[in-house]
Design goal:
135 residues, mainly alpha, 6 helices, 0% strand
Length: 135
């Protein structure tokens, strides 16, 4: 049975520091080794450099952090403590660049942006406008 997790120092070597993961070396939270393995197995190219996995992991981490920050702000505006798919939908559709990136994506349970055409709103009459100006 294989043991998964962080590598520890070998018992026989004295003063050996524990191995740093590629993610820790790059200063990322996303798993660089996992991304590298998926890139190699995906047959995207004949050869994959190790820098490609680091770059892709950094881009994925940045995009997820950006979406989570905007969705957290949307949840806070709706006085909720949890981020729901609706908050992710509002965050993505209200941001121009994310909306362009995810234009062909359907977010399950996300709903739609609130939008009422101006032609459908009730028209203001002269009677309604006159008393508000007097007060």
């Amino acid at each position: 049975m294989s043991v998964r997790g962080k590598k520890h120092a070998v018992a026989g070597k004295t003063g050996a520091a524990p191995k740093k993961t590629k993610s820790a070396q790059a200063g990322l939270q996303f798993p660089v080794g996992h991304v590298y393995r998926l890139l190699k197995r995906g047959n995207y190219a004949d050869r994959i450099g190790p820098g490609a996995a680091i770059y892709l992991a950094a881009v994925l981490e940045y995009l997820s952090a950006e979406i989570l920050e905007l969705a957290g702000n949307a949840a806070h505006e709706n006085k909720k403590a949890r981020i729901l798919p609706r908050h992710i939908q509002l965050a993505v559709r209200n941001d121009d660049e994310l909306n362009k990136l995810l234009s062909c994506v359907t977010i399950a349970q996300g709903g739609v942006l609130p939008n009422i055409l101006s032609q459908l709103l009730p028209k203001k009459t002269v009677r309604d406008a006159a008393p508000s100006q007097e007060q």
